[in-house]
User: Fold Chorismate synthase from Desulfuribacillus alkaliarsenatis.
Amino acid sequence: MRYLSAGESHGPELTAIIEGMPANFTVNLDEINFQLSRRQKGHGRGGRMKIEKDQALVTSGIRFNRTTGAPICLKVINRDWVNWEDKMAHFGEPLENIELVSRPRPGHADLSGGIKYQQRDLRNILERASARETTIRVAVGGLARQILEQFGIKIYSHVLQIGSVKEENPVRPFEAKDTAEWANKVEESPVRSYNSNTEKRMMDEIDKIKAEGDSVGGIIEIIITGAPVGLGSYVHWEHKLDSKLATAVMSVQAIKAVEFGLGFKVGERPGSQVHDAIYHSEEAGFYRNTNHAGGIEGGMTNGEPIIIRAAMKPIPTLYKPLESVDIETKQAFEASIERSDACAVPAAAVVVENAVAWELANCFLDKFSGDSVEEIKQQVAAYQDLIDNY
Ligand SMILES: Cc1cc2nc3c(=O)[nH]c(=O)nc-3n(C[C@H](O)[C@H](O)[C@H](O)COP(=O)(O)O)c2cc1C
Assistant:
């Protein structure tokens, strides 16, 4: 599968065209909209989340709840467009009194993008660089994860750190007494924390930093269960699953680091405390008692849960102004703003989940390819047989 997206933050809509999705997959629009609503939540969000409740529209490729094999067009309408029609008009001349954006915000694409694309109105940069673009990626991921779920692959996320507040004893969904209870609790938490104590401290941290006019980042963890052994491949660099998933994670705005399993800790420990010993039993087949690798060895899934962590930088737009220089006057100014998130770590977790869902669904369909869900099911069953008899 492949997809292209288009659309600006204050344009009429965000659009994606997905090509290559096999026929006869059952798709639930509510599930896509559920993902969109998850992206809009979280303690520390700013004004826009209150203006817009995102809803996906499908205009092709799905008929009576099922994919037809034709390209799927997904859209999310920007309700705020009515206030931007003049300023963001696609044709005609700009209004006399239109305010050009000439003040690049530190930490954003504004200045480098202005130089690169030779734009003197930095709105032409920020409109597309904005994290509003993640809306359509979440919609696409919301579709892709439905394929995965039909084959028992589930994607979870939680927040492990906000600023100086760290979850010291993280519980993962498969370690909890009840996975569904884990998922519900995290979903209801304004900071996506399973631990009520940490949740409270994280919210206090956000409030404190926001009151200081500052912003705060954090660390999220993505957990994928049910992936069969052998997605991705060692045979050539571009087939390695960890590299593909890392690209998906790093492509999300403000994500600055990614790690799998033990991650950076592999550099501190001896090999005997890094690698996962292999065992076998009649009932379980091959298995491991530890998962330091985070479910990926040699660029392939090894059957254990995939564990990915990512670090998000603090939101760059601060109420407390940062120094910058006007591109026209070359004069220094202090970048102040009207509206911004103080913390978007919980929302970023949802975005990363869905970006990863797209990549993993693609790898799944690379391994079990076919034009229809019927063909894919046959291949999955045949492969399961091969695994069981290995
Ligand atoms: C879900 C989400 C929401 C974001 N909200 C804001 C925001 O309100 N204000 C802001 O300045 N940056 C926000 N960002 C971060 C910027 O989009 C990002 O830092 C910027 O585009 C520069 O890209 P880079 O950080 O990847 O270099 C958000 C990012 C994500 C993932």
